[in-house]
Write a sequence for this structure.
């Protein structure tokens, strides 16, 4: 196991996603954020089938920053219940991890 994590969230639009990504990287809560500008989501909300366009963020961070990342997402998010999923990174490119360490310290 490594100390690196991927945090997934969605935003209502690309503008909101870019603002959140910029804030996370600027505040050294994420080394990098990938922004998928348009995805289609189908989900149940308050008993109804919903469908809509969203932007997806893949946030690359350290385990010790996950709580701060989740707090920032909840503070800045337009949804009542934002998606926040954290995935443990089990292995990867050591050079990339070294770069993340430099950026996040």
């Amino acid at each position: 196991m490594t100390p690196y994590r991927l945090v997934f969230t969605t935003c209502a639009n690309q503008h909101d996603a870019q603002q959140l990504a910029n804030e996370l990287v600027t505040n050294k809560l994420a080394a990098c954020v990938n922004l998928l500008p348009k995805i289609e989501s189908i989900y149940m909300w308050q008993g109804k089938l919903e469908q809509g366009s969203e932007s997806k963020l893949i946030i690359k961070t350290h385990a010790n920053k996950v709580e701060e990342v989740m707090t920032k997402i909840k503070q800045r998010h337009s949804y009542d219940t934002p998606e926040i999923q954290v995935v443990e990174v089990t292995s990867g490119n050591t050079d990339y991890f070294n770069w993340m360490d430099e950026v996040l310290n």
Q: What stands out?
A: Helices lie at 14-26, 66-76, 94-104. The beta strands are 4-11, 32-45, 48-62, 85-88. The first helix runs from residue 14 to 26.
